[in-house]
């Protein structure tokens, strides 16, 4: 989960103040000490931590805060606001050239996820109605061109390449000319990286920059490298002039320090965050939403956006009608499960719910829940169309056949059918209560 260690520690520190009717300077100092340790352990830049603690402390010990009716809540609000400020205060969007094509130059160290991120960005921009062209300029790393071609092939996006014997500057210039003639409005140049920053790499990138004059230079940074990520960002910005940062692997077991430090140190905005391995897992970076997630306040807006993307509106209306008329089938249930999976890992979805306790995720075996969902999918797919529409016809021999076909047990088939019937009853109760205007429902137990 994103920032798991940092998030837990900050939430624990603030829990002590949350319900207090009276807060002293000593309480604030104790909380600041815990927050400072949590940030340093998360690999946040020392100077950034020092400035952050100083700003929060100054505001938190003010008379209007300590003497307010809810001082604990006020201090939490200050921490939230300062975290947002630390990460860039507002979402920084990509800018586009007034005359197409807009050229984005992707830079970063080898292994930061630059090639995959180039594909993810092209995919995101295409969803916004743009026509992107990917350009293979990494002529040094074995199979780098092939990797970009595979990514482009999966997305159905053209990749411009002139092989690995051509100078990257010439490739960039030819790609921009090709984009103009073929009316592409976005050009994404995937440049070479190195295992460390060196003069040769920087010189080549400066030459590409001079040749094609990119509208934006986007630095791809691996979140899992912690403090090193900040040093890399500083060096690239100094030598090349960076317009924005894309953090990758933010969904991994990362301490999160780079996300909290990189904007403060470089002054450059974080524009996107890579949240998974799929080519659709690139999200615009919203400092306010990220701060809310870190402090356990949820991220309802991102949750709604994910749901809108994953769920088909027409299907949702059809489902509502089926629920009202008691025609909900196992096919409909399978369809809902598949749409839920499109939203991403269960742990990520749960972390966006306000008030959801991150520690509760430790008690839930997320891998086990994902496996249960996969087994339910297999059971339903092993049924005939008739059985899915009318589970009441599934007798003992049919249950054995379904279990064998799905690689599960008869007990698991029985449990799914029982839970499905309970769900249908619950839906009936909900629609009945809607008609009568009654309140109060028993807790709905999902079969996974």
**Spatial strand sequence of the major β-sheet:** 3-2-4-1-5-6-7-8
Strand content: 5-15%
Helicity level: 55-70%
Give the N-to-C terminal Cα separation.
20 Å
Largest sheet data:
8 strands, mixed
According to CATH, what is the topology of the largest domain?
Rossmann fold
Oligomer: single chain
- Over the alpha carbons, how many angstroms does the gyration radius reach? 26 Å
CATH superfamily of the largest domain: P-loop containing nucleotide triphosphate hydrolases
| SS elements, strand count | 8
Provide the low-confidence segments as ranges.
437-448
Query: What is the highest CATH level, the class of the largest domain?
Result: Alpha Beta
CA-based shape: flat
Secondary-structure-derived class:
alpha/beta
Reading the helices and strands in chain order gives: HHHHHEHEHEHEHEHEHEEHHHHHHHHHH
The second-level CATH architecture of the largest domain is: 3-Layer(aba) Sandwich
Count of domain modules: 3
- Indicate the mean pLDDT: 81
Number of helices: 21
List the helices and strands and how they pair.
Elements: H1 4-18, H2 25-41, H3 46-60, H4 63-66, H5 71-87, E1 102-107, H6 114-127, E2 132-136, H7 144-155, E3 159-160, H8 168-181, E4 186-190, H9 199-212, E5 216-222, H10 227-240, E6 244-248, H11 257-266, E7 270-274, E8 282-284, H12 287-294, H13 300-310, H14 313-324, H15 330-342, H16 346-351, H17 360-363, H18 366-381, H19 385-389, H20 396-406, H21 410-436
Parallel strand pairs: 1-4, 1-5, 2-3, 2-4, 5-6, 6-7
Antiparallel strand pairs: 7-8
Helix pairs in contact: 1-2, 1-5, 2-3, 3-5, 5-12, 6-7, 8-9, 10-11, 15-18, 18-20, 20-21
């Amino acid at each position: 989960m994103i920032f798991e260690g940092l998030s837990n520690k900050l939430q624990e520190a603030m829990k002590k103040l949350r319900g207090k009717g009276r807060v002293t300077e000593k309480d604030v100092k104790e909380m600041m000490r815990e927050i400072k340790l949590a940030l340093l352990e998360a690999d946040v830049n020392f100077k950034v931590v020092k400035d952050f603690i100083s700003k929060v402390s100054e505001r938190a010990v003010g008379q209007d805060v300590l003497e307010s009716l809810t001082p604990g809540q006020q201090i939490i609000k200050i921490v939230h606001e300062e975290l947002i400020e630390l990460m860039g205060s507002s979402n920084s969007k990509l800018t586009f050239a007034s005359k197409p094509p807009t050229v984005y130059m992707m830079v970063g160290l080898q292994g930061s996820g630059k090639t995959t991120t180039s594909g993810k960005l092209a995919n995101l921009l295409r969803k916004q109605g743009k026509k992107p062209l990917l350009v293979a300029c990494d002529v040094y790393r074995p199979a780098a061109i092939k990797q970009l071609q595979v990514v482009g092939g999966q997305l159905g996006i053209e990749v411009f390449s002139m092989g690995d014997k051509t100078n990257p500057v010439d490739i960039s210039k030819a790609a921009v000319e090709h984009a103009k003639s073929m009316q592409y409005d976005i050009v994404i140049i995937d440049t070479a990286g190195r295992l460390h920053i060196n003069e040769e790499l920087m010189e080549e990138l400066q030459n590409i920059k001079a040749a094609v004059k990119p509208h934006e230079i986007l630095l791809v940074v691996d979140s899992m490298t912690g403090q090193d990520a900040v040093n890399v960002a500083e060096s690239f910005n100094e030598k090349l002039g960076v317009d924005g940062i894309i953090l990758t692997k933010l969904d991994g077991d990362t301490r999160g320090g780079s996300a909290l430090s990189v904007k403060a140190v470089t002054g450059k905005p974080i524009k996107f965050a890579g949240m998974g391995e799929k080519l659709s897992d690139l999200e615009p970076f919203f400092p306010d939403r990220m701060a809310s997630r870190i402090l356990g306040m949820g991220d309802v807006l991102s949750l709604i956006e994910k749901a809108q993307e994953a769920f088909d509106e027409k299907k949702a209306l059809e489902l509502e009608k089926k629920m009202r008329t008691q025609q909900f089938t196992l096919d409909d249930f399978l369809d809902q499960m598949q749409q839920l999976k499109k939203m991403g890992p269960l742990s990520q979805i749960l972390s966006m719910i306000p008030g959801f306790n991150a520690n509760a995720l430790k008690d839930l075996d997320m891998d086990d829940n994902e496996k249960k969902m996969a087994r339910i999918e297999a059971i339903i797919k092993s049924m005939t169309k008739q059985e899915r529409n009318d589970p009441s016809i599934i007798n003992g021999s049919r249950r054995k056949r379904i279990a064998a076909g799905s690689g599960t047990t008869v007990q698991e088939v029985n449990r799914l059918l029982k839970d499905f019937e309970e769900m249908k009853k619950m839906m009936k109760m909900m629609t009945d209560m809607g008609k009568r205007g009654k309140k109060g429902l028993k807790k709905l137990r999902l079969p996974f």
